[in-house]
Amino acid sequence: MTSIARTDAVAQMGWPPKKLLPGIFILILFLIIPLSLLLMTSFWSASFTGLKAEWTLANYARLFSRPVYVDLLMKSTRIAFVVTTITLVVAFPMALWIANRPPARRMQLMFLILIPFWTSYVVRTYAWIPLLGNNGVINYALMKTGIVTAPLDVFLFSQFTVHVGLLYVYLPYAIIPIALSLERIDKDLIFAAADLGASPRQQLMWIIIPLALPGILGGGIMVFILCIGAYVTPALLGGTSGMMIANVIPDMFGVGMNWPLGSAVSLLLMAITMAWVWLLGSRVGFRSIFIGD
Amino acid sequence: MGAILEIRNLTKSYGSSSPAVDNVTLTVNKGEFLCIIGPSGCGKSTLLRMIGGFVEPTSGDIRLDGQTILKLPPYRRPVNMVFQNYALFPHLTVGQNVTFGLEMRKVNPEERAIRVREVLKAVELSGFESRSVLELSGGQQQRVALARSLVLRPRVLLLDEPLGALDQKVRRKMQIELMRIHREVGITFVHVTHDQEEALAMSDRIAVMSNGRIEQVGDRVEVYTRPSTANVAGFVGESNRFCGILQDGEDNAQSVRISDSLRIPILTSTDVHVGSAVELFVRPEHVAIAPLDETGMAMFDGTVRDVIFLGESARCHVVLEDGTPLMASVTLSSLNASGFANGTRVRLGWPKKASLLFADNAA
Is residue A142 part of a domain? Predict the structure, then answer.
């Protein structure tokens, strides 16, 4: 029924849909044109003075021949994958708990989850330095209790720190869609599962998780996209070992003065991200993730 | 016909308001089809959900085969429920929905397959195993919900307004279907509905609820013909309802004074004091209205297969000699007089002028 209503609404707009023109204009100006330029630049040549409009595949050849870029891409994908998995494992029980509160309480809890967004995530990321640093809270506590004699430097400026930072910043992006999709599950379905002999664990396995899958995958895709292209977190907390692919792109456009290579790296990152999204999305269908039902 | 399910002094109250279920005591007999009826909000669904284990009673006891089941979680209770909106699992196929309970109970795959096939045959959905439940019509979804519960062979099957979402025609069909299935599987059915016609049509016994209490429990004909309270009389079946004052008339005959010009003579009442306000109910079928003439009749012989009791009348499902099915309405009095039971040989007929003739364009 909703799909019929939706189709009617679209049909009423006519073609081209006039009401959508402002949106289409913004999309063309800020998305289509810049992306086309990026695509074009990635096939141009670099020179000492900047760009040369000579078509070449050299940028992509260089990208794949230098292990540093491939390694960085692999590392970024791995970090994003690990963080997404941990985020989902942490987010699901929280979302389940929130979704089972009475409606008024649920709103309060959702609100609490959104509170960190009131502060810039740069500031929130910086906050980890006094926590994890050599003179930070954790090392101070470890030394005071005599567990270690010298401060441990593994906490800060490592891949570990990047994982912690990303998990912290992007957790709400997973909790909210999962909680919403759990909330939408008809309670009678869970009663019916219990009635048919499913223990609480079986209800979770066979009914609740499968029905919340759109929310789980939606949240997962969101976190994955945000993580794979993360810039601020690895820049502030990663040091050299925690560097990710997005951290090298600005240098190519800045001090490196190699826009074509920078464009090629950007596009490759985008392609990898889209491939993952497509892979995850095709498991349940984009329709159920982004539209519902 | 021993007791299978005993509900003793069961009460459920939410906070300070009057209890949703108020000190209900009810015995369900093995193999019977019991209907619990009452207006919405009377507590009948809450009662059913307490039996299923989804609502915890405030006090009282529920005993199945003599053992209390109060401490058992829903997934350990040997009763199953058909939900109002079927609650079919939307991400599973028909076959997966039906086999779900067997899988949870770790029944081995061969037996699972056999039982699923059997039950789908019983609800006439053979070959639907791999269909998505979302593709099915309301009536078909209803059958899947029924099959999903029946396949577990519950001690008692609880039905929570299972036909409420269906349109009139499908509902009638499913009523007959439910009766047939009940007869064939021999499982005890406890059916909750607000539709008194449905209860009269299908059940062996009826429990009438109002404001959380049970007003009357009895055989369907008894509940209909001898309601014990005005609530029951008003709720079950159609009635002409009068309000008046009980009066003494001449020769010790009593009457109810409705207005200055209307006095309804009654048999002498011993329960009500003369001079007090009364409600008086008269069923429409007791108000006789006679046809004047009758011309030629078409006459056929057949056998009664089902008698659907509708309250004021009954519908006999008859099969003629050549196998043609035929439905006939019978008044309560002629039903009582002739005692139509399943298997009775009958003669049917109708005035020639009652047959409406149309050209068959399809032929």
Answer: yes
